[in-house]
Amino acid sequence: MEPVIELVSTGDEVLTGLIVDTNAGWLSQRLLEQGWQVRRRFTVGDDRSDLVELFEQRSHLADLVIVNGGLGPTSDDISAEAMAAAAGIPLELNEHWLAVMQEKYSNRNRQMPRSNVKQAMLPQGAELIDNPVGTACGFAVRLNRAIFIFTPGVPSELKTMMEQEIIPRLATWFGQRGASEVRRFFLFGLSESGLSDRLDSQDWPAGITLGYRASLPTIEVKLIAEQASPEALAQAERQLLAEVGTHLLARDELDFRRSLGPLLDMQPLTVFEEASGGRLTDTISTITAEFEGHYLSGLPDEARDLGEWLQRSARGPALAIGAEGPQGVPVALLTAEHCQVQTLKVHFRDPLARRKLLAVAALDMLRRHLSRQPVMVDYDILPCSERLTLPC
Amino acid sequence: MEPVIELVSTGDEVLTGLIVDTNAGWLSQRLLEQGWQVRRRFTVGDDRSDLVELFEQRSHLADLVIVNGGLGPTSDDISAEAMAAAAGIPLELNEHWLAVMQEKYSNRNRQMPRSNVKQAMLPQGAELIDNPVGTACGFAVRLNRAIFIFTPGVPSELKTMMEQEIIPRLATWFGQRGASEVRRFFLFGLSESGLSDRLDSQDWPAGITLGYRASLPTIEVKLIAEQASPEALAQAERQLLAEVGTHLLARDELDFRRSLGPLLDMQPLTVFEEASGGRLTDTISTITAEFEGHYLSGLPDEARDLGEWLQRSARGPALAIGAEGPQGVPVALLTAEHCQVQTLKVHFRDPLARRKLLAVAALDMLRRHLSRQPVMVDYDILPCSERLTLPC
Questions:
Q1: A30: exposed, middle or buried (C-beta count within 10 Å: 0-12, 13-18, 19+)?
Q2: Minimal CA–CA distance to B75: which of B119, B138, B123?
Q3: A280 → chain B, closest CA residue
Q4: How does pLDDT run across A203-234, given as a tens digit for each residue?
Q5: Domain locations in chain B?
Q6: ipTM above 0.90, yes or no
Q7: CB contact under 8 A, B24 and A37
Q8: Do B297 and A290 touch (CB under 8 A)?
């Protein structure tokens, strides 16, 4: 039987939206990679009665509840207290953790503040879960049907504790799971609806699910294999790549250094840009240090003008993103052979989205050139009004 | 009586952490600005029985439940169907919304796909809520104690619907609230712990709460006034500004164009950078178009060398961020009077955080110069190892 797994995020800052709860998403993903699927998520503030009520209720309905946050030393950190109240047991001092905290402080030549003693007060009978990187220990408590695991809200502490302490325990408590596998593909230039029209109508191998996520400037397509054979996943991947062709920008993660770095270790590149702000330069500088990037105002806003300007201005391979003109923004790639320019229309209004799209469109021309593909292709999301190739 | 307000986020993509749920945080903040506080948040996947069970349960415990997502045309969009099942009523076609959708399509010279008809199927008796920017209409249903409001998952559609349709209804249903007021202050260079040590020990006017959020490259301090008088808030603001002094970078929102734009409409600036990638250029290009930005490799990594290089290289006012050296990264401001350079140590390891901090440190030198403040000051988070002023 699949265990019912639930997450509880605590804290007024999360509940009121002052901070975005990235821990819950990370926990869900990390558990999914291990083959466990989170069923429900709850978010409550630093309110004792709301927490007690929720813990009591979930103790009858879930097998595992991972609680995040509320383990700090201050008065609004009440997770342990609320758990003890829900279970009808007292808090008691964990002498071992008190000694660990005192040692952490003395190693830094500091006296432990009295307020930290609170972090060693755990519900009676709780199993301590070590926090190698902080003073908020975790702990596990069983109540009714559920095991509750309490974790710190600081993301780096949560992650360390999950990897080193909690995931190994889950395997013991719930048995090894057949881990589901997710493969990610980042595509540039296709629209989500166009892509799903093409892919959803196909037959896919058994056990394979497709997922989409539009995340400018790219679209992420996921192949999710649950209980599928490695052969089925490999077959699905071939099928996907045959369909999306050269629009594939990166696999697994959108790390331009990984996907473009090997291609860019060549003769130094020069970049000129206007409509993209400094975004193209900033992006390329995450890939390689050996290039020059220039933001200039007053660049041409028409394809032929930009191409000729670039031929006059650059020595060696270069990219240019011109000014915004009535037809769109001209984007040019200069190589030893010729200068290719296309004018792209950007429909998005958000300034940052526009800059990102233009920067990645220029990078995509370079990527296509370096991998010997056609440099100017149709992009669903960036209609092209003009294409020119000027001989050198 | 304060109404009990709850949010429900739906969708496998949110539940599994494939996308971060920014809608819930936005909704909480927007409601809080109107004086309504969200009490609990729930996240469930595209599972009919989980949704039905949750809607039924919350209908007895909440006054208002805002449900986000699951209104699209595809088979995994089941919010309306689950609500109808929870209430024990059928779905029925809303002829008005069907006509609206058909018109939206014909305005774009397209035929409405049959799958869209589903978006006009609402629980019997539901109140339609217009979506001016999409095909997913919202709707409101009363069940037991609660009013349920269904909203689309696309952030721009959600936001438009909230502003134009839902917030005005809330005032009708629950009465005008005494809106709490939040003022935000963005500070650069101070650490969160240093700041809270200085501020938390002070007495603050009645009804004023302080909030902190470290969000690189700045720290946000909030003054939250609940039922406090305008005088108390003004007094708290004076008190805060007296303490943080010239570290204030922006108010209300971290929009460099608003806070620095008026200062930058002067003679054109030139920027040179290396350790910050293209981040300084990219940031300044969001403020003004009339400047030049250059990313170069091989810039000096020592304060005096960078200052002298900048004096030789720039005509007119200029900023430079050098290479990373053993002492840190030199950052220089050249004005008509002199060249000021400081070497800053960046402790953060994340490359993007490092770039942002260096870029904002350089901008902060310019901001201080243009507002006639001392240009080089102590930053808690960027220790300075050397300061130089070279005469021109």
A1: middle
A2: B119
A3: B278
A4: 999 888 887 776 778 888 888 887 778 889 99
A5: 5-174, 181-251, 256-391
A6: no
A7: no
A8: yes
